[in-house]
Structure prediction request, 160 residues.
Amino acid sequence: MKKVLILFLLCPILVFSQGEAKTQIDWIPLEKAKEYSKKYDGKTLIFFYKEHCPYCEEMKKKTLSDPAIIKMINNNFFAVKIDSRTKDTINYNGIKYSNQQPISDGSTWRHDFYAEVAEYREMVTTPTIALFNNKFEKIAVFPGNHPKELLIRRLKNFVK
Prediction:
């Protein structure tokens, strides 16, 4: 009888929690995204931003917090958020990329990986979204602050 009662009490929790909408993008580390992308034949989305960038903050608050964008990204991409001025070493296509500016000088210089993959028509800007296939080859770059409608149109070309 106790088992039936416990099951009866837990049933609404189990049923209703499964349909809960995500309220944020499931950001994961770059190495995990590369691993999952290869293992599950998926695509990786990297959002490059920098601290104190008004366009980056606007895109985070307006576009990347929109439920339709969150659902599209979480359901179709392994999402990574990288500060374009990070000091981390990043491996890409067999090359180790880093930030050439010494840590003692602060963090005002862009990371070489960001400069390599975010370049669009010989320019690099933040924010930028870069997409990669399951072999971690760059397949698209979307520079600049994107409103929801534009980002949805661009991402639709790369969803299953």
